[in-house]
Structures are given as structure tokens and as C-alpha cells.
Design goal:
Distance between the termini: 82 Å
CATH topology: Glycoprotein, Type 4 Pilin
CATH architecture: 2-Layer Sandwich
Structural class: alpha+beta
Number of domains: 1
CATH class: Alpha Beta
Order of helices and strands: HHEEEE
Largest sheet: 4 strands, antiparallel
Helix content: 40-55%
Oligomer: single chain
Length: about 140
């Protein structure tokens, strides 16, 4: 009869596996907040793109009529008056214009609710809530 020796040298010990799990947990803890910030940027990007479409519609309206339309307070009024179309926002933004060609997006629900972004006919951005011009809290390209 042959005597078989067991090779205990191959495989991982419980200690090694636990060390790897701890390292992965630390890395996940560091990475997850960064992914959460990307969600906010994505939501704001949606508002910025829609505001840009509305601004272009306002500029075209001004070119054709010599003035901006009276205040437009909802998507139907904006699309009908400016003859534009945009997909309804999915992240709690509402849009309005005033009689001077300014577009305002207000975060009505979700993270950052109550804040707003404003875009002038000249292309200048401002805002309240999470918006800060210096750090570009809503989005760095708004400087």
C-alpha cells in the first residue's frame, strides 16, 4: 500500500481570504461616494441640456418676433410657443422662462430639491441651492 501525503501548501488560508475581503471592503467604501456624486451630475446634465434647447428656442423666437414671449411656466407652454420639443425630465426638474429670455430650472424633488439653475440669453449661468460658481457644484462647465 502506498502512503499518500496530503499537500497542505496549495490553496488559501482563512486568514488570507479575510485580508482580501477587508481590502476589497475598504476600496468599495472609498469608491462608492464617488459614484453617488456622478448620479447628481447626471441629473444636472439633463437639466442643462434641456435649458440649452429652451434657450435656443427663445433666441429663435426673438429673431422672428423682435421680443421674447411672455413668461412660460410649463413644458406644454414652452414647446408650443417656441415650437421645440424635449423629453420630460426624469429627475425632478421643472422649467420656466420669463419675458426677458431667461430660462430657469428648479429642482422640485429628489436630492438638491429647492435649488435652481438660471441661464440668460447671453449664455451666463447662475444658481442657488447646491450651485456654487467657484467649485461648479452642479457642474464644472457652468463657469
Amino acid at each position: 500500500m502506498m502512503n499518500k501525503k496530503r499537500d497542505h501548501g496549495s490553496g488559501f488560508t482563512l486568514g488570507e481570504i479575510l485580508v482580501v475581503i477587508v481590502i476589497l471592503a475598504v476600496l468599495a467604501t472609498l469608491a462608492l461616494p464617488r459614484f453617488g456624486a456622478q448620479t447628481g451630475k447626471g441629473e444636472t446634465t439633463e437639466a442643462i441640456e434641456i435649458m440649452s434647447v429652451i434657450r435656443q428656442g427663445l433666441l429663435a423666437y426673438f429673431d422672428e418676433n423682435g421680443s421674447y414671449p411672455a413668461a412660460l411656466a410649463n413644458q406644454t407652454a414652452i414647446e408650443t410657443t417656441l415650437r421645440i420639443s424635449y423629453t420630460p425630465p426624469r429627475h425632478g426638474w421643472t422649467f420656466a422662462t420669463d419675458g426677458s429670455g431667461v430660462v430657469t430650472a428648479t429642482k422640485s424633488s429628489g436630492a438638491g430639491a429647492g435649488g435652481n439653475l438660471t441661464l440668460t440669453p447671453e449664455g451666463n449661468w447662475s444658481g442657488t441651492g447646491d450651485y456654487t460658481r467657484d467649485t461648479g457644484q452642479y457642474w464644472p462647465q457652468l463657469h
